[in-house]
Amino acid sequence: MKFGFIENRYKTIFWNAVAEYFISEGHSICWLVQNPIFSPTVGNTFVIPFPGKKQLSECGGLSLENFENVKSGDRYINYFGGNDRHYQYYISEIRYWLDREKPDVVIGESTLFHELLTIEECRARGIPFFHPSMPGYPGGRYSIYAYDSKEPLGESDDMPSDEFCFALAEAIRKRERIPEYMIPPIDKDPERIYPLPNSFMNRITVLWGYLRGERFNTPSPLRKWICDRKVKNNLYRWQRISKDIVPIPGKNYVLYPMQMQPEANLDVWGKAYRDQTELISEIANSLPHGWTLLVKANPKAKYEIDSNLIELLNSHPKVLPIPLNSSMADVFEHVDLVITVTGTVATECVLSKKPVIQFGPGIVQNRVGCVNPVTTNDIDTIIQLIEAGEFSTANDSERVELVRLLYQTTFSGKVSDPATLPSVMSKDNVTKVASSILKVAAQQQCG
Known about the structure:
Layout: E1 2-6, H1 11-24, E2 28-33, E3 44-47, H2 64-73, H3 75-80, H4 87-101, E4 105-107, H5 113-125, E5 129-133, E6 141-146, H6 162-173, H7 200-211, H8 221-241, E7 252-257, H9 264-267, H10 276-286, E8 291-296, H11 307-315, E9 319-321, H12 328-332, E10 337-340, H13 345-352, E11 356-358, E12 370-371, H14 379-387, H15 396-408, E13 411-412, H16 427-446
Parallel strand pairs: 1-2, 1-4, 2-3, 4-5, 7-8, 7-10, 8-9, 10-11, 11-12
Antiparallel strand pairs: 5-6, 6-13
Helix pairs in contact: 1-16, 2-5, 4-5, 6-13, 6-15, 8-11
């Protein structure tokens, strides 16, 4: 088979190791590279030249629906004041690459604009696009998502026992097990070769790409500094207006844990609700008398924390921002309902028998204990069920079934970039990940 890989900064280093395994198994490799700083070392590489000013134009190479689909998930447009005038140029280059290489499967992420454009072209041509990604649970495993969706491809056959599944459900309920992405990277990790994210050396590497012409995923240093400064100031304002939770008899609480942005989890998979300030306002307005919305900042908060959000948190009578240092464990037991778009907290809630509303796609969608409403107008009806004691939560067998599903839709191995998680580069991990991808690719080709 012929596999195409899409460059994505440091993730390319991991894909390069996976590609080496594919080659050892007799497969051929081709690459599409947008940022030459992160070019791979194996396979046939096509580096898209950076466009000149005369090559920038209004986009006409995609249907309106697909154009808006890409634009709505483009972090450079959403957070750094970019535009789409480079789309037409890159669409032409991507089409040239696909026509020339004719890959059987394309592998990448659904985060950067050139990946999103490639996804649309692959979808139109019927070429499978794999997005391997690690969900929060069960840990040490990854899913293969189709295109820019959360639809998992393939099924794992290494299923644990029911006893193990129940023990894991209990560990998650007791918060003895947390998602791996919540564990911060270690600067002095003995396996570390590449610079820590946001470190000085990492910034130098990214700056070098910017100076060479990468202006479509990378903001200018000044704009990046201004954006980061605003986040810092807004977090300071958040902390000043935040209040500790003091349970009051007869008062009920809804928790909305904010999701970090930019991130594919919300900006792509949950893009209909990517404006979290608007969503928080709609949730608060839908709450009946006696209910308050607690808003928790993401521990890795970024550009979702803007001045409009702070104004809402400070002015809405039914909204209460909790202190930045409050953990999920501090607040979870005090709330009667949790609302999320695509957060891992939905899985935690179902396994903890805590009512949860999920607006976006996810593994617990339409399962017992999770409601997927059409709009925020449905929240009041759901709350009435909770108040009447009629909201159904998962029993132990259903909790075990969910954990089994988490294993069934994931494969052993870790997928990340080596700057964030150096251990992904171990030979054992690369072999696990690569072999599972090959298995799913073969299934897709036969299907």
